[in-house]
Amino acid sequence: MEKESRIEHQYTIAFYNVENLFDIKDNGFTHDNDFLPHAAKRWTKKRYENKLYKLSDVISKIGFNNLKKPPTIIGIAEAENKKVLLDLINTENLKNYNYDIVHYDSKDERGIDVGFIYNKDEFELEYSKPFSIYLEKEDGIQDFTRDILWVSGKLNGEFMHCIVNHWPSRRDGQEESSLNRIAASQKVLEIIGLINENESNPKIIVMGDFNDNPNNESVKMLTEKGQLFNPMKTLVSYARGTQNHNFRWNVFDQILFSTNFFETDNSSLKFEFANIFDEKFLTQYHGKFKGQPFRTYVGKKYKGGFSDHFPVYIQLSKMNS
Question: Is beta strand 248-250 parallel, antiparallel or unpaired with respect to 253-258?
């Protein structure tokens, strides 16, 4: 009797904070005035198109060495609107991969949102919903931040959930702002609770720029209360990270997932490995910032780079007969 032949299918799931991907049009409802052609930053059509080209080049290469294809799913942070995401997937580097997007406008004051890019040939979208986080300023007035995006669908016939995040920044100080990120973490736990109410043993991936490291309370809540595994914990070191502040590496960009991605049953999606996509071409080549992410701007000075964050990714596999 002939042995049944089985084919391994592999997929890359990525997350990328693309650093201020704004179009060049003024949105009267948000603080986007820095990113206009006549602003101090001189954000022109040429600079916008250059950034789209560079970001799409990065995305097309994440996981490509292993799988000979770009990611199936990319969570995005710091996209101004639906248009910039559509422009991104329609670039020369990405237009042949049948990508589509999920995007909702949030009430973030700067008008930056999270987004979800997926390959329609491999991921079948079924449901999506944004969740806002309630925050208050010291004077009791509501403070608006990026929404959390919940997307559900099938990858290789298997139902799964992705939760995309860009948590409140540390701009006012790490300790002073930590409660805002704990509030964001609680919102993610609320979404996980909703999923668990309707499904037994659901497959969940939580990705984002958390503005906290794996050992900070807000992220630990996801592993302890949300029972997620965080492979990025092992990637934290003095010499490597996803973002560098004052010559200190952070791993703010992370992808966590439910432990059923470790199941040994070959016929279900399983976790292979996680990594930071920090190839040399994404870094500054010279000077005191050598090795750090090559940014688009430093202050108001245009550098023409990619982003101030490196992307992160995980690889999944599944055997099909």
Answer: unpaired
Contact 173, 203 (CB under 8 A): no
Q: What is the pLDDT of residues 125-144, one digit of tens each?
A: 999 999 999 776 777 777 77
Helix, strand, or coil here: 276?
strand
* Residue pair 100/189 in contact by the 8 Å Cβ criterion: no
Give the distance, in angstroms, between the CA of residue 153 and the centroid of all CA atoms in the same chain.
Answer: 17
Query: What are the boundaries of each domain within the chain?
Result: 11-315
pTM of the model: 0.95
Q: How far apart are CA 39 and CA 110, in angstroms?
A: 15
Q: Are 24 and 314 in contact (CB under 8 A)?
A: no
pLDDT (tens digit per residue) in 208-221: 999 999 999 999 99
* The residue type at 47: R
Domain 11-315 has CATH 3.60.10.10: yes
Q: Are 75 and 207 in contact (CB under 8 A)?
A: yes
